[in-house]
């Protein structure tokens, strides 16, 4: 028996597993391939640099980045609290934090409207005292995206924190470092891979956010129409444009995935 | 100017540690005991990483821990700790590791790095200022950890099994070097170890704990001569001498010993009491270390009898009860002690 035949015998997959596996693979890849096949390649450049696409793309990137910033500022301390502080009912807190992860985003949008809307529990006072109204504004987009994306960051950072050896923090304390100094100089660098992965995931989630955004922030071109909303709109009026916008989002996703894989996921440092 | 620790720590598991531990300035106290005896717990209470349940810890007139009202956080205690696996910060270079404590306490960056460099030079790491901990050998990492702990001029230096992570060959040289740094350090030192050799070479006082309680304390030589429990007898049952070597001959304060490996300069020599044989007459033939001794005392332990012998040098021997009977061992009896040169460990001091 030749070496190749032997290897083939050893490596042979059971049909029961191989067939559904291949169908599953096709199911995931074919729609994306279809997107590329149906793309209006001839007018692609023109569409890609049209004002509508540029506007939506810019708004999306700006809002997703701002939302990610909000998530970092609030989410990293929250992750630290969940991982390190001696809180009663920490399990319940952790479960609550993950709710937006499984919640249909539309429900999140409705919830945000009820709280931050002009007649909302908090929104009412914001409007009355400061004249601030969040729904249907660009700030509303950022809030909706942050609400949906923050759990990704918190879960990722908390996992990294729990994996980090707390004895390094003790060592820092014996060297005279306050908890804040220790957090900045010891804890954060040691969870850098988890933090970066969480940030990228969070940004990607915010970029693709649709349900909560359209519910809470509405659909106003140049103000709240982000890429996913623009895709949905264009599908009705100009399917070609919808495909172009989708390809841009697909490309961004692939870039995110590749940067994650190469730098942090496959080779944890 | 003394560190006083009279502490009781009760853990949820039911474990209870009771310790009364005064340390004078410049003194090195070794806390010795089997695993689970409470050594690390004691070290953690002194560092402030664990509060005491009762009692108090104070340095000079500063109280660090006295329930229920006083507890000084670890970052506010002038302590330096060398951890068992060093816990060097892997994302920082050697200099940044050593400068960490100074920076954390508010020393400006430039000055902190200057002082860190001086410390690294002192511990012999002039070549490794910018090396990351991962790229250092075990012995080098230990020295960075020591420099990091000493850089903030702590009043209390805590060493948690500082040599346990090293292999046997590095251990000897690092131990000798650590001994020199400890001798130069004016503060209070507590060394936690389960290795009697480390304790006897590095410490002025041994405190031996078993099951959370002190079973014996005193200068190493005294503890070795008069062990109070089987554990202590087994633990510190070591004939340890300081001497000066010239080839294979080591001249001790009293007497000489012949060793297997030639060495030069000041050395420690050690051998276990079980390596000593006792004979009624000087034996003929091979043993090169053979000298007259007088029985000074006999102590029965679980399976062996420890015999204290006066002579040049004085020596401890572990023999079987059968030998006691054969030789009619009794205080005042004159015998001849022999030790094979290959049984003697030599290391620079």
* Strand coverage percent of chain A: under 5%
Q: Name the poorly predicted regions of chain A.
A: 265-269
The number of domains of chain A: 1
Radius of gyration of chain B, Cα only, in angstroms? 23 Å
Query: How many structural domains does the protein architecture of chain B include?
Result: 2
The CATH architecture of chain A would be Orthogonal Bundle
Q: What is the CATH topology of chain A? A: MetI-like fold
Q: Kindly report the average pLDDT value of chain A.
A: 86
Amount of beta strand of chain B: 35-45%
CATH topology of the largest domain in chain B: Rossmann fold
Task: Explain the layout of strands and helices.
The complex is a heterodimer of chains A (269) and B (349).
Chain A: H1 3-11, H2 15-37, H3 44-48, H4 51-84, H5 90-102, H6 105-116, H7 123-130, H8 138-163, H9 167-174, H10 179-190, H11 192-208, H12 211-216, H13 227-237, H14 239-265
Chain B: E1 3-10, E2 16-23, E3 28-32, H1 39-47, E4 54-59, E5 62-66, E6 70-71, E7 79-82, H2 94-104, H3 109-122, H4 138-150, E8 156-160, H5 168-184, E9 188-193, H6 196-202, E10 205-210, E11 213-218, H7 220-225, H8 230-235, E12 239-252, E13 256-271, E14 276-279, E15 289-300, E16 305-311, E17 315-319, H9 321-327, E18 334-339, E19 345-348
Parallel strand pairs in B: 3-9, 3-10, 7-8, 8-9
Antiparallel strand pairs in B: 1-2, 1-4, 4-5, 5-6, 10-11, 12-13, 13-19, 14-18, 15-16, 15-18, 16-17
What's the quick description here?
Chain A is an all-alpha fold and 269 residues long.
Name the descriptors:
heterodimer, A: 269 residues, mainly alpha, MetI-like fold, disordered C terminus, B: 349 residues, alpha+beta, Rossmann fold, OB fold (Dihydrolipoamide Acetyltransferase, E2P), 2 domains, five-stranded antiparallel beta sheet, 9 helices
